[in-house]
Write a structure and sequence with these properties.
single chain, 168 residues, alpha+beta, three-stranded antiparallel beta sheet, elongated
Length: 168
């Protein structure tokens, strides 16, 4: 009598192993893509800081200091989208000559718009770029958060100032 070997059990094991292998491959691919997206967002944040710092430097040269902010301002959203020197009309209406961050171009000196559209944090939206200044406008600080280690910068809170970018 010839004994027949069952292949049903072997087939189930092979199918289960293949499904597990594909699931693991998908998981690793997903993790790699998310890590690359976070790194790309951090590259955008560093680029944004360099653009904002350059615009603030130009503002400082024209206005003998940086925009004065009595309280921290979230940049690129709401009322804080344009960096410019204030117009004479804005100043004569009670605005300060050290104002510089506005909702739109209306209060701006048209010849001194340094950044038409201040960048905002790519994501998450709850971690905005936060601008603050010294009371006399001699320096500023922009708080931003990196998701990953980016070059020499570790993940976490960083401060962009006129002198450069450092860990806060």
């Amino acid at each position: 009598m010839k004994k027949q070997i069952s292949t049903q059990g072997n087939t189930a094991v092979i199918v289960l192993a293949a499904i597990t292998a594909f699931a693991l491959l998908g998981l690793f691919s997903f993790m790699a893509i998310n890590a690359n997206k976070a790194l790309a967002r951090d590259a955008q944040r560093i680029s944004d800081m360099n653009v904002i710092r350059a615009a603030l430097s130009l503002y400082s040269q024209k206005n003998n200091g940086y925009p004065v902010s009595p309280s921290p301002l979230p940049l690129g959203i709401g009322e804080n989208k344009v960096l410019c020197s204030p117009s004479r009309d804005h100043i004569s209406a009670g605005g300060s000559p050290r104002d510089g961050i506005f909702k739109d171009n209306a209060p701006c000196n048209a010849e001194q718009v340094f950044l038409q559209s201040i960048p905002q944090n790519p994501r998450p939206a709850s971690n905005e770029y936060i601008y603050s200044s010294t009371p006399d406008g001699t320096d500023y600080n922009i708080l931003f958060i990196l998701e990953t280690n980016y070059g020499a910068l570790e993940h976490g809170a960083h401060c962009a100032k006129s002198a450069g970018i450092t860990k806060c």
